[in-house]
Design brief:
Length: 223
């Protein structure tokens, strides 16, 4: 099932989210959040809380889904990264069709970028592990120094590095945060039903230009 495909424009640049779009990353993310909460003496996370944390930034997640103030959220983020740096980043698996789609789009002449809220230092390692980096012209993620703190800022930087204008760029993700960040930059968005959206309502409320069931559908329309 795909929405609005009859209206698909001609793009030259395609930006891809990482978690829930190119990889299934929840084992590492869940484990690191549980570790952070345990280290701070907090209650154990409920599954509905954990699921919401895939997509937005850690600061946003700890503040909005666990009720932390800014200072506590920063401490939780630091604890999360203690475990993530050692083992969490490697607890990923590629999503079916992701690598093949990147290869096909690159061969067709598209400029490609990774645009993720995950810290770039880890995102690059994951991208290289699964061969995604072979097809990206640019890889953009948040910085441990606080740079590119929002999805919109990540997308803006990725566009700059590709030299693409808003009307020629397409953001591909799986959550409402991808659609919101794209809209802030005037960029069209395609959401894939392969990742971590909470339910069908999330796709409706996010109002992306396109919704696809699989990478195969996305590839067919772009090619």
């Amino acid at each position: 099932m795909c929405y609005n495909t009859a209206a698909m424009k001609k793009y030259t640049c395609v930006l891809f989210d990482l978690d829930g779009t190119l990889t299934y990353s929840h084992p590492g993310i869940y484990g690191c959040i549980r570790y952070a909460l345990q280290q701070l003496g907090k209650e154990e996370a409920k599954m509905e809380q954990l699921r919401k944390c895939i997509g937005p930034s850690l600061m946003y997640s700890f503040q909005n889904y666990f009720g932390m103030d800014e200072e506590t959220a920063r401490l939780a983020t630091a604890k999360y990264r203690e475990r993530y740096a050692v083992e969490g980043w490697a607890e990923n698996a590629p999503i079916e069709g992701a690598l093949e789609t990147l290869k096909a789009l690159k061969q067709a002449g598209y400029k490609l970028a990774m645009a993720t809220s995950k810290p770039l230092i880890y995102a690059e390692k994951i991208s290289a592990k699964f061969g995604f980096s072979d097809y990206f012209d640019a890889e953009v993620g948040s910085g441990l120094d606080g740079s590119f703190p929002t999805k919109a800022s990540v997308i803006e930087e990725a566009m700059k590095r590709l030299g693409g204008t808003a009307e020629k760029c397409l953001m591909v993700g799986d959550r409402k945060h991808d659609a919101e960040g794209a809209k802030e930059n005037g960029v069209d968005c395609a959401l894939l039903k392969v990742g971590y959206a909470e339910n069908e309502e999330e796709f409706i409320s996010a109002a992306p230009e396109y919704v696809f069931d699989s990478f195969e559908e996305l590839k067919m329309l772009l090619l």
